[in-house]
Amino acid sequence: MGNETIEAPAGVPAERIVDFDIYDFPVDGLDYQGSMRKILASRPGAVLWSPHNGGHWIVRTSDTVAKVLSDHEHFSSRRIQVESAPSERAALVPLQLDPPAHAPYRALLQHALSPKAVGQLGIRARELTIELIEGFKADGYCEFIGQFAQHLPIAIFMEIVGLPADDRLYLTSIAEIAMRGETDAERQEAIGKLMAYGMGKVAERRANPGTDLISRVVGTDVDGKPIDDAALSGLTLLLLLGGLDTVASTLGFYAQFLATHPEHRKRLQDDPDLIVNANEELLRRFPIAVLAREVKADVELDGVLLKAGEMVLVPTQMDGLDERKFADPLTVDFHREKPGANSTFGGGVHRCVGSMLARTELRIFLEEWLKRIPDFAIKPRTSPRVSARSVATITRLELVWPAP
Amino acid sequence: MTAPGTRRYLCFYCGHVYDEALGAPDDGIPPGTLWEDVPEDWVCPECAAAKADFALEGEF
Description:
heterodimer, A: CATH 1.10.630.10, 5-stranded mixed sheet, 3-stranded antiparallel sheet, 14 helices, 46% helix, 11% strand, B: mainly beta
């Protein structure tokens, strides 16, 4: 598994120790989530220990995932990745701030991504979705990630923050390296480029403010003072990483599932009213984010003592895929009751502020794609692969369908 | 301002509405329960967001 291993703290029962490297574990086909669950569910106990990536705890049940995400008194967001050596990366704001410091920054983002704002953005998202699909429908082929998944949500995001559409390809390529580059040096370099890009836009908006989110952030006081450059840098970086990668990655998992499950496609075509619940069910089954928290104060969880300074891996996948909460969790059931009550979008004070927009874009994709391209498959003799660090994605997904 | 008993509260994260007139019977909250009387540990039945993540409809 490729990195140095750390001995478990004294007193950790052997059956709680799992040889699991979150950045390098065997994935069966494209089922990243199911493969993770298979390994973690092989051990007894809700809290496990991994010797990889600096040594860390793992919570692997619905209850413990929810507990760690909601208890900011014991679990800090100061560090949000497990790693052998702590990264020098600038803190993402407000994601890496604990309450109450995070609140004023979060309020800024909430305003831009409120249900009311998303209502307007949804109109534009639908127009763009239709335009993109109609653009390649007659070809009977598309490379879904590049031609759709990295286009729709990113174009909408770029409108929110007021970035030029021409920068989309540059930004998505840099974001891919920042999120899943091979080496830490590559990732850090890409993050540096994103930060430089973000701060360039901050300077532009200071000189010439508009109505976009970056202008709003630049023009807002926190605690009676303008936001300083360190916080602005962390805020714009979070916006870029969140806006450029997450919905695009989720769309890839949606498309690969539908491409390989004609009976599910037919159910949605026959009964489009099912799409709202289907969207939540697909989010439950295919979460992309793995979170982490630093233990702030010693705390007992599931009978083991977690000590201040230790790290806890929080795979959001392990909530929606917990069989005690969702029966037969690996099966996608569009009629499942309340599939959305899970941690796919995180939880507690850092629950994803863009989740309403994400839900809207994903639902629109289902509605408009299935109307126009009802039958499609993964192109024969292609082998799409999952690439993952803290966020899992499918890097290339070629789809084919009968051309009209 | 909407009168207590007829108010509707919207979940920021998924858009679910808590309607005071309807309550949330599946969660043991009878019709007519005012928002302030909904338990603080109640969560959104659709997405599990906290009660604090709801706001009066139209406020966000």
